[in-house]
Amino acid sequence: MTTANMNEVEPESVDERLVSVSFWRRLFTRPELGAIVGAVGIFFFFGLIDTQFWKLATAARYLDFAAPLAIMAVAVALLMIGGEFDLSSGALVGSSSLLTGIFATEADLHLAVAMLLSLVFALLIGFTNAQLVLRTKLPSFIITLGTMFLLLGANVGLTSAIVGTIRIEDLEEAAGYGVIQPILAKSFGTPPEDFRIVILWALVITALASWVLLRTRVGNWIFAVGGDQNAARSVGVPVNKTKTGLFMYVSASAWFVGNTSIVRLTSTQSSLGRGEEFQYIIAAVVGGCLLTGGFGSAAGAAIGALIMAMVFIGIPTVGWEPDWRLSFFGGLLLLAVLLNNWVRNKAQEASR
Amino acid sequence: MKLKRLLAMLFTLAFVAAACSSGSSAGSGDDSSSDSGSESSSGEEGTSEESDNEEASGSATYHLITHANPGDGFWDIVKKGGADAETDLGVTVKYSNDADVQNQAALIATAVGEQSDGIIVSTADLDGLREEIGNAIAVGIPVITINGASDIEGTGVITHVGQSETVAGEGAGLQMANAGATKVLCIIHEEGNTSLEDRCAGAEKNVEIERLQVAGTEDIVGSQNEIQAKLQADDSIDGVLSLNPQIAIAAVDAKAGAGSSAVVGTFDNSGDVAEAIISGDLLFGIDQQPYVQGYLPVVLLHLNNTNLNEVGGGKAINTGPAFITKDNIDAISDKAQLGTR
Predict the structure, then answer these.
(1) Following DSSP, what letter does each residue of B81-117 receive, concatenated?
(2) Is cis: bond before A192, omega within 30 of 0?
(3) Is B186 within 8 Å of B179 (Cβ atoms)?
C-alpha cells in the first residue's frame, strides 16, 4: 500500500512527502531490510563456525542452490504482492520438465520445439489458474491447491502411461541439446569453483522484476491490485489483466526452472518440484512479502532464496546434524512474519 | 498500453497453444487409453478362460498395497512385477499405494472388505500395519509382506519377500571397505524412513559412516550441491553410499565437481546407474530385485490359494542384495532399460 501510494502520487507532491520521512525510517520500512540483515547474519554465522563456508567453492554451491529457488521466489513474490497465491507452482516445475522430456525423448522433437510446447502448457495452466480465481472469486489458495494436485497426479500418471516408467533419461540424445545446453546449463570456472549460468539468469530476472515493480506503471498496478482490488479497479487499474499476467509469469518461471533442471541433469523424475512451492513462499515472505498482498519486494525474495540456500549448504559444510533443518525454516518463516508485521506497522505510521 | 498489447499477445499464444496442446494431449490420451484398454481386456480374457477351467482360482483377486511415494522409479518395477504375474497367471492384481502408514492400513482394510483372495503389503512401518494384517488373517485372507521390515514372527503372514536392509547395508559397507574407503558418507534422501537408517547402520558394521540428509528427489540439483558442499568441506571422506538411483547420479556429479576421489556406490538400479557402472563412475549398484518383490508374492499367494502351499517356513525370503558391478553389468543392463531390473 505504502509504496503504491508513494509511486502513484503526483510528481510535485513526491518531494514534499519524502522530505518529511527521515532516512532511517525509510530504510527501516524497506521490505527487503530483514532479508538483507538475515543474509549477512547467516553468512557470518556459518563462516565463524567454519571458515570453509567463506570459500568460493562453497559460494558456488549455495548460489547454485539459490538460483532456481530465487527465480521462483521472485515470481511468487510479485504474485503475492498482487494479492494471490500459487500452490501449483512446484508441481508445474515437475510437469514442465516432464513434458519437455516426453516431447524430446519420446516424440523425438527438436529440444527447442519440445520446450516451446511445454511453455505453452505452463502458460495455459497459469491462465487457467487466473481465470478460475477471477471468475469464481474463490481464494487462489484453494483454486491452486486443486491444480497442484491435478498436476501432481498427471506428473506420475501421464509419464508412466507414455514412458512406461516415471523417470525420463537420456535427454542429451535429443536433437538440439547442444544448442540449448549452453543457454540453460553452461558452467563457468573449474570445479569446485564452478558457477552455472542459471545464477546469471536469476540475477537478470530479479533485476527485471524489480525494475517492473518499482519503475513502471505495471508495477504500480501490481501493488494496487494487491492493496485494495476494488479501489484499484475504480481508479482504472486493469485488475483482471494484471492478475492474469502475474499467474502466467509464475507459470513461465516454473517452466524455466523445470527446464533448466532437465537440461542440466539430462534426466528428470515425476517427483521433481513436489512440495517445493512452500519453499518459494517462505523465500518470498522472508524477503518481505505480506500474506495480505500490496507489500513486498522482488529483490527481497531473491535474498530470501539465498538465505535458505545458505542454510541448506551451511549445515553440512559446518558438519551439523541436518535432521533439524526443516524446523530451522519454520523458525525463519515465523521470525520473518513477525518482523514484517512490525515493519508494516512502522510503515503505516510513517505514511501518516 | 504496452502491457495490454503484450497480454493480448500472450493470450493469443495461450489459445493457439491450447489448441496445440489439447491436440497433442488428446493424442497421447488415446495412446494411454488404448494401452490400458488392451491390458485390461487381455486380463479379462485370461480371467474368463481360467474361470471356464477352474472357477475357484480363475476369479482370484490379489491386492498389492505399497507405501510408494508417487514418482518413485523403484516402485514402478515392483508394480510391473505384479502386473506381469497378473498376465502370466491369469489372475487379477489390484495395485494401490499410499506413503502414509495410516492410509496404507486403510487400503488393507478396504481389500479385506472386498474379500480379497490374498494381500501383499509392503512394510515400511510394520507396527503401524499389524492390526489390519491381523484382521485380514483372522477372516482367512492370506497375507505376504514385501520390502521393508522382515521381522514377521507372530504376525501370521505366510512369508516376507524382500531384502534385509541391514544385511544389504553390511554388504555395501564391505564393498566400500574392500575398495579402500575408510570414511563413507551415507546419503539419506527421505526423512524418517527407517529402512534407509537400517542400510546406513548395516554399512556402519564394516566401515566408518557419516550420515547426510539431503533435499531428496524433489530437488536433485539441490541435493547434488549439498553432497558436493560436504565433500568440499571434508576431504577425509573417501566413499559415498547413495540409497536411491537418482541421488546416485547426483553423487557422481558432486564427486566430480568437488574433485574428490571418493568411491561411489548405490542402492537400487536404473538405466543411468547402469551406464555409470559401465563407465566406472559407480563402483556398484545394489539390486534388491524389486521385480521379484512384485512378481513372486503373487505366485506364492496363488499357490496357497489353489494348492494350499506355504513357502518360506514363516521366515523371510531374501530377494537381495545382488551386487551389480562392471563384471556382470552387460548381461543385466538390457533388462534395466526394459524396466524389470
Answers:
(1) HHHHHHHHHT-EEEEEE-SSHHHHHHHHHHHHHTT-S
(2) yes
(3) no
The CATH topology of domain B165-287 is Rossmann fold (3.40.50)
State whether ipTM is beyond 0.85: no
H helix runs in chain B, sequence order? 2-53, 55-58, 73-89, 101-113, 126-138, 165-178, 194-204, 220-233, 245-258, 271-278, 290-307, 329-338
Domain boundaries, chain B: 54-163+290-319, 165-287
How close B135 comes to chain A (CA, Å)?
31
As beta bridge partners, residue B123 has B148
Nearest to A241 among B7, B222, B229 (CB): B7
Helix-helix angle A197-215:A217-227, to 10 degrees: 80
**According to CATH, what is the number of the domain B54-163+290-319?**
3.40.50.2300
Chain A contact for B98, CB < 8 A?
Answer: no
Could you tell me if residue B65 is left (phi over 0), alpha (psi between -120 and 50 degrees) or otherwise beta? beta
**Could you tell me the three cell numbers for A38?**
538475515
The closest alpha carbon to B66, from B107, B28, B27, belongs to B107
Collect all residues with Cβ–Cβ distance below 8 Å to B203 and sequence separation of at least 6. Answer: B169, B170, B172, B173, B176, B184, B186, B209, B241
Residue A69 φ/ψ, nearest 5 degrees: -60, -40
What is the DSSP-derived secondary structure letter of residue B319?
A: -
| pLDDT by 10s per residue, chain B, length 341 | 444 554 454 444 444 444 443 333 333 333 333 333 333 333 333 333 333 334 444 579 999 999 987 667 788 889 999 999 999 999 999 999 988 888 899 899 999 988 999 999 998 888 889 989 999 999 999 999 998 777 888 899 999 999 888 889 999 999 999 999 999 999 999 887 778 989 999 999 999 999 999 988 899 999 999 999 999 999 999 999 999 989 999 999 999 999 999 999 999 888 889 889 999 999 999 988 899 999 999 999 999 999 999 998 888 998 988 899 999 988 887 777 777 87
Question: Is B165-287 in the same CATH topology as B54-163+290-319?
Answer: yes
Q: Flag if A64 and B225 touch (Cβ within 8 Å).
A: yes
Rg for chain B, CA atoms, rounded: 23
- Domains defined for chain A, CATH in brackets: 2-351 (1.10.3470)
First to last CA, chain B: 58
Beta strands B263-267 and B239-242 are parallel
Q: Which of A257, A230, A233, A231 is nearest to A76 (CA)?
A: A257
Whole-number Å distance between alpha carbons of B273 and B284: 9
Side-chain-facing half-sphere of B66: CA atoms under 13 Å: 26
With a CB cutoff of 8 Å and minimum separation 6, the contacts of B58 are B47, B48, B49, B50, B51, B52, B90, B91
Distance in angstroms (rounded) separating the CA atoms of residues A83 and A33:
21
- Give me the residues of B, 266-295, that contact A with CB < 8 A: 270-272
Q: Closest to B69 (Cβ–Cβ): which among A68, A271, A313?
A: A271
